[in-house]
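Before anything else, study the sequence and fold tokens given here and see whether the fold suits the sequence. Record follows:
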Amino acid sequence: VEMDNTGEVCSALGHAIFDYDTLKVVHIRSKKVGMINRLIQLVIIGYVIGYVIVYERGYQDTAPVAGVATAKLKGVAFTNESSSPGPGVGTRIWDMADYHIPPQEDGAFFVMTNMQITPMQTMGVCGEENATCTSDANCQEGEKLVNGIQTGRCVEFNNTMGETSKTTCEIISWCPVEDGSLKKSYSLLGNDAKNITAYIKNSIEFRKFDYQARNILPEIDDPAYLKDCKFHPEFNASCPVFRLHDIFIFMYGSRAEEQWQLATSLGAVVGIDISWNCDLDSLTFSCRPKYSFKRLDKINASVSPGYNFRFAQYFERPVDGSYIRHRNLTKASGILFKINLKGQAGKFSAVPLFVNLGSGLALLSIATLMCDFITLNLLKRREEYRDRKFERAEVDDDLVLPLTLNENKED
């Protein structure tokens, strides 16, 4: 008996491994269902071939772009501020070494268009601008303020023009401190900065495909090309030289002048996107950069609008036979341009092609599911279709193997 049971188990196991089951197919002669089935199949095939394979290039392997971008500025600006409030500006020419701060920065460049200069500062004691007081009792010795540490004395405040207008707490600091009342309400370099040009030099690579390129196209071999060209999205989209005011025209159109004056007065952050979407297949090769521009900071911010920072230039001057360290403090406002590289390259590969085709074949089962739903639920003869599609078999609920084991125990 035990041998018989072992044989039955082995036979069942053999059937489970080597038997093949196939689905039952019911052929339904219905023009409506047939047309719906073929229509759904055509839509799926069109989607897979037309959109996934052709339009989205589903036959290509892809790689993200990697690269570096730097900028070189050209142009001069002129100021004649010798008679206006605030020292340190004067009548002078500003070239790229003056308004381009810092001179080299990866992926960004800053153009100073407005400034407030506090010249000839020395380390000493002077009044803090915003710490007003009426007596020494209002000033806490050793307490830190914005520009320095309090001495505990209440003194007359002398602004950078040498004028006394109020009494404030004395501090140890670089003196005289910056005078906020002399802030310009207009842009000192704004009008001349319109014609400053930025040459953006961009080199990229797609490492997976060992392909390198730059934004000066291979067909350009004239050394004078960069001297004469200016970027325009329609007429000269390949030129990497940008006039700063033109960037605002591309962003704002008829509102460009208003936004330019606001940006050059308070400062702004502008994004320059360089998109490299390349097709590296030999028959359809295409790899050219596309430029777009957008404002990154909030234009009408009520708190801390614009963009500015401070920097200092240090030097020593002889005073009474000894050299004293001085500095010129500049609060610079201007436009920070952030360069962003994005995009990808594609090249033919059998792997993504067959993966997308396999996914498309799997989608064809949707047509079968929808037609089954229609025939089994919506057609008049749905009961007949249901009987033909599904076979019902009465199966004994008792298991064979446990009964056999019980019989063995009885024996």
